[in-house]
Amino acid sequence: MGEISIKINIADRVYPLKVSMEEEELIRRAAKLINDRIKEFQENYAVKDKQDLLSMCVLHYATASLKAERKVTVEDTTVAEKVYQLDHMLNEFFSKQ
Q1: H or E segment to which residue 34 belongs
Q2: Considering 4, 32, 42, 97, which has the largest number of Cβ atoms within 10 A of its Cβ?
Q3: Worst-scoring range by mean pLDDT, 17-26, 51-60, 82-91?
Q4: What's the chain's average pLDDT?
Q5: How far is it, in rounded angstroms, from Cα 87 to Cα 65?
């Protein structure tokens, strides 16, 4: 599909973007999450400077991303170990037949 032009507002600044139609909803949802998080930080920490709020927001989402990566890695390792154990058990079973 082709690209479309959209405008995204983050921290009271408008960013014109060209995105694929498939990405539009995802990008709009991401911008809403960012703006909601900025608002939450502004209310909870009485921070007014947009740069500080954006930095706090970036730190929040980068940390969440790293935690998710770590979780996936641990789960992948666990699954691989279980598959290896199952394979070993099946090999033992069929070698006795």
Answers
A1: helix 21-45
A2: 42
A3: 82-91
A4: 93
A5: 33
